[in-house]
Amino acid sequence: MFEWKERYAIGIDSIDAQHKGLYANGAELFAAMSAGQAKERLSSILAHLVQYTEAHFAFEERMLQLHKYPDFPAHKAKHDDLTRQVKQFQQDVRSGKVGVGVPLLAFVEEWLTQHIGNVDRRYVPFVTAKAVA
Which residues touch 31 (CB under 8 Å, ≥6 apart)? Predict the structure, then answer.
């Protein structure tokens, strides 16, 4: 899980580097879960993944706003939706309601792959036309 593939690259170096970081954080979470590491370790890694995701979303949103990307509201809504879902899951893990499991990790990996491959790719022509690469 969470293996970065060059086909995920969108051609904007700063964004691609951050996307790679998201995959690396996901891979760390998967490795810890697979190794049966303590809940505290999993919670810490999940917290880092959430923090990194929020920072990435903020960076991407600033870039899109700066260049007046016309589909920004819909793009931000997708970010907000994932952030809410992952924070709820994070809270559920902290409270002991659920553990970190393959279904959640598969959801996050699928979301990343679909978001990068479909949603982020839509802004690439617009942003690169403004010479942001």
Answer: none
